[in-house]
Structure prediction request, 251 residues.
Amino acid sequence: MGRSPCCEKAHTNKGAWTKEEDDRLTAYIKAHGEGCWRSLPKAAGLLRCGKSCRLRWINYLRPDLKRGNFSEEEDELIIKLHSLLGNKWSLIAGRLPGRTDNEIKNYWNTHIRRKLMSRGIDPVTHRGINEQQHGSNITISFEAAAAARDDKAAVFRRDEPTTTKAAAAIAHPRQMEWGQGKPLKCPDLNLDLCISPPFQEEKPVVKRESGVGVCFSCSSLGGIPKGSDCKCSSFLGIRTAMLDFRSIEMK
DNA sequence: AACGCGATCAACCGCAGAGCG
DNA sequence: GCGCTCTGCGGTTGATCGCGT
Prediction:
């Protein structure tokens, strides 16, 4: 048996929102705040399901949204974050003020994917398409990055499934400090992130020493001193892209 | 002007996980 | 610990727009 529907579908509108619906939703949220999406439509006098209201607010009506074209910097950041996080659009959006996950997802699928493909880069693995069969796993160390920040102890254990935690730390570095202003101390956590090309037989993970960079363009695994560029001098066509955690740290 | 086609983006759907009793 | 509800996320769909023929 399936779960019960989130709302009474027979009595809800679907499709594009009207100006009046937008106004009602905006006015209600301004008066009562976000939250309790299930009961919101009824309270606001809307014939919509709660999910639909939430989506409309988050993706379109929120006052802090930055609409319009993506800048080159935003492009670059999205590509970098996607190479680290994959399709974690909400985490990526967390690093792009005023942008929504839906917007970034659409932008990725319509613009960036094609852009990377035209450069001969696989948008899924972020590696040259020709390199696919020679690919090897890459682990990116965030230990140095964590130490570079104030939250020196935010290091995750490698042997637990921490990809999401690491991703969250990247997307919302301040949010890793749970507990009313007390910095989170997790001395046994390791921020190592492992990125591996899909559809490959399992190979031993190549562990990078912290403080050593990895070039995603030429896949140099020989160890590149931190702070210096790889000889190939490009990352997805963008210079300065030694994948150093600091380079994706924002503001 | 009419049509076809690809691009774009708002909105929907189903699932997973968190929270709560 | 279990079951239920609610929220949030990612994938997908479909309406609309713009351009070329």
About this structure: Confidence is low (pLDDT under 50) at residues 1-5, 135-251 of chain A. Residues 2-3, 14-17, 49, 51-52, 55-56, 59-60, 102-103, 106-107, 109-111 of chain A lie near DNA strand B (CB under 10 Å from a C1'). Helices of chain A lie at 19-32, 40-44, 50-61, 72-85, 89-94, 101-118, 143-148, 163-171. The beta strands of chain A are 138-140, 193-195, 212-213, 224-225.
